[in-house]
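Hi all, long-time lurker, first post. I run a small reading group and we've been trying to get comfortable going from sequence to structure in the token notation. Rather than ask abstract questions, I figured I'd post a concrete chain and ask someone more experienced to write out its structure so we can walk through it together at our next meeting. Sequence below, copied exactly:
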Amino acid sequence: MRILNIQRMSTEDGPGLRTTVFFKGCPLKCAWCHNPESISYQLDKEWIESSCILCLDCVNICPEGAIQFIDNQIVSDRNLCTMCKKCIDICPTNALKLIGKDITVDQLHKELIKDKAYFSHGGGITLSGGEVLIQTKEVLELLKLLKNDGIHIAIDTSGYIDFSRIQEISPYVDLFLYDLKLDSNEKHIEFCGTGNQLIKDNLIKLNKLATDIWIRTPIIPNSTDSKDNIESIARFLKDENIVFEKWELCAFNNLCKDKYKRLYINWQYENSGLIEKNKLEELQGIARAVLPHEEIYSVGATKLEVTNE
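-- Answer (accepted) --
Happy to help. Here is the structure in token form:
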């Protein structure tokens, strides 16, 4: 299987203290993605400017001429790069790093089981992405091993996948973290690159299985943060009688902007700031007005409004 990395001591990917595995590859192309390195299934590389001593060994060794020194920066042409990794191997300061690695199911299981002692107070393991269910066959093998270990398992999914894959793994999953980003199909195409009917249909089907669900909505400036969007998602959940433990409204931050820079990608949200606390609370109130008996939370850092009195 192909993963990005393993993040330990996470408190944001399910209940309790968790170890989260981020998988490579995603069928969506969300404009605000906080893990842009996870979108492509292919291995990639990044340049970390703060570690670079500008020795230019990478420029000189590249057989394809894919790396150049331009405006005091190392620039890589992805169209020319064949991922031979010679530049990465020769870099004396690890300023060029490989993004993604291949690992067997057994290897990943042995790595994750090391953390079992930390899960005794309600924690567990979360498989995230990208979209983890792209690699269903290997993930199913891993889930069976982890379930035999008695570990709480959460799957963070976009829902944009054939439902047969969700159904196949569901007996081994304790919790689904399910993304509902936009209610409008047109807006979903605009911002995520695909429509959202499959996502909605899959949630309706998942709702019929005996599995806990958390709904997650990223609150993105000028994209998902409208009152109409939150109210429409809430009405969809109500009309379809979706049973969920909680709904998280996840506040935007731009901490990932350096990732885009290292990948040579222009990011339209680079200069967007934190959402104001009052606005996030207002959106939370709109959701609660439609679903007064449900657990609806706002999570993440916000900007406090400064008022002159």
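A couple of things your group might point at:
The longest strand covers residues 2-10.
Residues 277-290 form the longest helix (14 residues).
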